[in-house]
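Holo prediction — zinc ion.
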Amino acid sequence: MARNGSQRTGEKYSGHQHKSSTKGNFHLNEDFLVFSFKVTPCNKKYSHDWASCPCSHVGERATRRDPKRYHYLPVACEHAKQRQECPAGDKCPHAHNLFEYWLHPMRFRTEMCMFRSKCDRPVCFFAHSRQELRPLEAGLPPTELPMSATINVQTI
Ligand SMILES: [Zn+2]
Ligand SMILES: [Zn+2]
Ligand SMILES: [Zn+2]
């Protein structure tokens, strides 16, 4: 089965590590990344590599709650930060993993990618030009790097 796909997902998309990979080039536009990536349930019936599939899978830790249906903020959930299961579950008003955090419509591409135009990540949470850069809404706390570091290793 594709269970071990969830482990690889975290490595491949981790926000602050650069791994060059030619696999899984999705050519995804911004709307798809923000509203569908790892939100839409996968309908493939066969075993496949979850990390290179843009859909969500049962048991995959990268799976996101649909930002249009669930009203959570791109702010790290205290329970997720401690790697504990959140008692509020889907009703929690905060992000439970790196993907819910960075792909959230209010957080996506609000910071510059350190690789700029040389970035070859198939899915990158950051902006590659001034045109791509989006303003961070007033009232949102700035990026919490400790959260992404924790999540990279353990939660996804
Ligand atoms: Zn899939
Ligand atoms: Zn929570
Ligand atoms: Zn990038």
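READOUT: The pocket of zinc ion (ligand 1) is lined by residues 42, 44, 48, 50, 53, 55, 57 (CB under 6 Å).
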